[in-house]
Design goal:
This protein is mainly alpha-helical. The protein has helices at about 10-20, 25-30, 35-50, 55-60, 70-75, 90-100, 105-110, 115-130, 135-145, 150-190, 195-210, 215-225, 225-235, 255-270, 275-280, 285-295, 305-315, 325-335, 340-350, 360-370, 420, 465-475, 495-505, 520-530, 545-555, 565-575, 580; strands at about 425-435, 440-445, 455-460, 485-490, 510. The protein has a five-stranded mixed β-sheet with strand order 3-2-1-4-5, sandwiched between helices. Helix 22 packs parallel to helix 23. The radius of gyration is 40 Å and the shape is flat. The relative contact order is 0.05.
């Protein structure tokens, strides 16, 4: 069977030549004779030249030059797509001139001095060309003056040829996929030439002499090579003596050299990433990531270079990300402002979207603070965390007590369902943080959708009357659509909840006992506030101005569940939302 340069073997041969492997090795890997390779190179050369490329551009794309180029160049302007037994172009042109003038097929064939069978083939060829360009059957019949029988016959033959071509293309693709593994194995098992073996042996001996403490000049003298050759070997290894034991081939989790050779081969054959993934038994995202990471700037995928780069990227240990002075300084500044590691990580990802050196995960910051690995952050920054711990400890649960009872409570299970969705603003959660001796306290409120928080200092007491007055003053500054519900725990400070509802119009719902997760937004806000107002301290010492500054600072910190926007910006947007848009 005659194979062209567009076949699987032809694509592999031309790609190997373009990669600089030479004519003979490329032909051997593709399983063809050297002269077949020359024929394919000639086909590709003529195709590129007839597309308008210059001779220099064509040879650069082929990656090949030969003394035969002069003969190939002479064939560029020559018409070679007609068989040697076919009638000349002039006779065919004369036939169409007579036929388009209105002569019958017989008279037009007589005028062109050809047989009727030849004219019939020309008619059929033009019919196929018109149908391929989208012309309808009726128009083709009218334009070529065909009978109904001839039209049906031409169309049936055209469809049969198309089905045959499609089946052949499918079979060729299937064969190419099946042979891809064998081709990759053949490339991996390629036996180096004698010159390559000599060079490899000389390189191994050179490095062994270097391990024995011999200088570069002495090693080159013993091996009979120039000092420049030794310097080039050292530069190629980044002036590092390579280890004696080679790295073992990876398998399973990581792509290996064979799979990368198959990926490159199937890409050249025009297969999609999903088809390649199915053939390799990998997920399509694995192939997508491999191509995104290791493709050349011009879109080329070089499998051996990709395999080498992947091994370097997997090497351990890696340089710690906080070794970057700019990144380290920025993290320390944010920690000094009591930002959590998650807030720092999310803010950096949003602030520096195109700079991968300015990104790190929250776990990296935690490990640098609490474990201080690889020259981590100073232990004084650990006190800036919400817990203030310097070591990691498991979570623990507090004891559940009985507490006091509040009359006429509306429990959380009767709260409107839209509160849980966080699609509607105006649903608040509240609680108290208490100072030393339970004398002083602060009331905290947090809105569920915008995560905006309010802190009110209660320096004298935290009775029900004082809490009601503080909550009424806080809600007085809000528009009606931002005052929908309030959820509290069962603390005695909310004993007068009915009076609070009458004063503000905000219904109060109570969480179950010992269930802080039912008011998670407020518990989180309390933890943030405790960074500024630690437990075991007198909260009455803080002025109203200082409390307002802390509230503003907390509301201007980015939040992960707000896509790292600030609560202040989200509340402002809700505050300015027209009433008609809320209905």
């Amino acid at each position: 069977m005659h194979l062209g340069s567009s076949s699987a073997a032809g694509v592999r041969f031309l790609a190997s030549v373009r990669d600089g492997h030479g004519l003979k090795p490329s032909a051997r890997h593709a399983g063809i004779d050297k002269e077949v390779g020359y024929r394919w190179l000639r086909e590709k050369y003529l195709q590129l030249r007839r597309e308008g490329n210059t001779p220099a551009e064509t040879t650069a794309q082929l990656g090949f030059t030969s003394s035969r180029l002069l003969a190939w160049e002479a064939d560029v302007g020559r018409v070679t797509d007609r068989h040697h037994l076919r009638v000349g172009v002039a006779e065919e042109a004369e036939f169409w001139l007579a036929f388009d003038r209105g002569d019958s097929l017989k008279l037009a064939a007589h005028a062109a001095r050809v047989a009727r069978s030849t004219a019939y083939r020309w008619i059929q060829k033009r019919f196929d060309r018109l149908r391929q360009s989208g012309v309808t059957i009726r128009r083709c019949q009218a334009q070529l003056r065909l009978t109904d029988r001839s039209t049906r016959s031409f169309e049936a033959q055209r469809l049969a040829r198309r089905r045959t071509a499609q089946n052949a293309a499918t079979a060729a693709q299937h064969a190419a996929v099946l042979s891809s593994g064998r081709y990759a194995d053949q490339l991996l098992a390629a036996v180096p030439s004698e010159a390559q073996q000599r060079r490899a042996k000389r390189t191994d001996t050179y490095w062994q002499l270097m391990r024995d403490g011999v200088s570069n000049a002495e090693a080159c003298r013993l091996l009979g090579m120039s000092r420049r050759a030794g310097t080039q070997l050292r530069q190629a290894s980044n002036f590092q003596i390579p280890p004696l034991n080679k790295r073992a081939e990876t398998s399973g989790r990581y792509l290996d050299a064979r799979e990368r050779l198959q990926i490159a081969d199937l890409l050249r054959l025009g297969h999609s990433m999903r088809r390649i993934a199915a053939e390799l038994g990998r997920h399509p995202s694995t192939i997508s990531r491999e191509l995104r990471r290791h493709r050349h700037s011009e879109g080329l995928y070089l499998p051996r270079t990709a395999d080498h780069d992947a091994r370097l990227q997997r090497a351990r240990p890696k340089i710690h990300k906080l070794a970057n002075p700019r990144l380290r300084t920025l993290v320390q500044r944010k920690l000094n402002r009591f930002w959590s590691p998650d807030e720092i990580s999310g803010w950096m990802r949003k602030t520096y979207p195109d700079d991968p050196t300015m990104r790190l995960s929250p776990e990296t910051i935690y490990r640098a603070l609490l474990l201080r690995e690889h020259g981590g952050l100073h232990k004084r920054y650990a006190s800036k965390l919400r817990t203030g711990r310097r070591i990691r400890k498991t979570r623990w649960r507090t004891r559940t007590g009985q507490g006091s009872r509040i009359r006429n409570m509306t429990m959380i299970d009767q709260r409107p369902a839209e509160v849980e969705t966080r699609l509607e603003a105006g649903h608040w959660e509240g609680d108290l943080i208490v100072g030393v001796g339970s004398v002083s306290a602060m009331m905290t409120l947090r809105e569920r959708k915008t995560q905006y928080g309010i802190i009110v200092n209660l320096p004298l007491d935290h009775t029900a009357a004082s809490v009601n007055a503080a909550a009424t003053a806080a809600f007085a500054t809000l528009p009606p659509h931002l005052k929908r519900t309030l959820t509290w725990d069962q603390g005695v400070e909310m004993a007068s909840h009915e009076e609070l509802t009458k004063a503000t119009g905000v219904p109060v719902y109570f969480a179950e006992r010992s269930s802080p997760w039912q008011r998670g937004a407020n518990e989180n806000f309390n933890g943030l506030a405790r960074q500024y107002f630690p437990k075991g301290t007198n909260l009455a010492l803080h002025s109203a101005k200082h409390v307002a500054r802390v509230q503003r600072e907390l509301n201007e910190r980015p939040r992960k569940n707000l896509d790292y926007d600030t609560p202040a910006a989200r509340l402002k947007a809700e505050h300015n939302t027209p009433i008609s848009a809320l209905r």
